[in-house]
Fold this sequence. Notes:
- This protein has one helix at residues 55-59, and strands spanning 2-3, 19-24, 28-33, 40-42, 82-86, 93-97, 100-101, 121-123.
- By secondary structure, the chain is mainly β.
- The protein has one domain (1-126).
- The strands form three sheets. It has a three-stranded antiparallel sheet with strand order 1-2-3, with no helix packed on it.
- A hairpin with a 6-residue loop joins β5 (82-86) and β6.
- The protein is globular, with a radius of gyration of 14 Å.
- The protein starts with a strand and ends with a strand.
Amino acid sequence: MLVATVPAIATAQARRVPVSSFTTSQFGKVLATSKGQALYVWNKETRARIRCTGSCARVWPVLYVPNGVVVPRRIRGYRGVFGTVRRPDTGRRQLTWNNRPVYAYHDEGPRQVKCDNVDKWFVVRL
């Protein structure tokens, strides 16, 4: 599993972008949380416009970016462009991949992909 070690600017303690990856025979290299949980995008959300709030966000937990962490557009070893979007429901920053908010699935453990192509949710393939 790769873990991004991208330090934030101007912090006493290095703070890191909370992503990693793992490889499966079915999906290849998959973007994951720092704990190895697969990350997904929802095709109903485009251009960083958030629609998954409330009960949706409880089933599909948001990958928040901690305060003080600067997310670079490119992360070495990862395909795609990274960034953040401010959520309308919490005001907190959520990680984006290729301008799409990313989420985990609440009922998956590390290195599992259960919900690819389910109700327009797709695992992020790197």
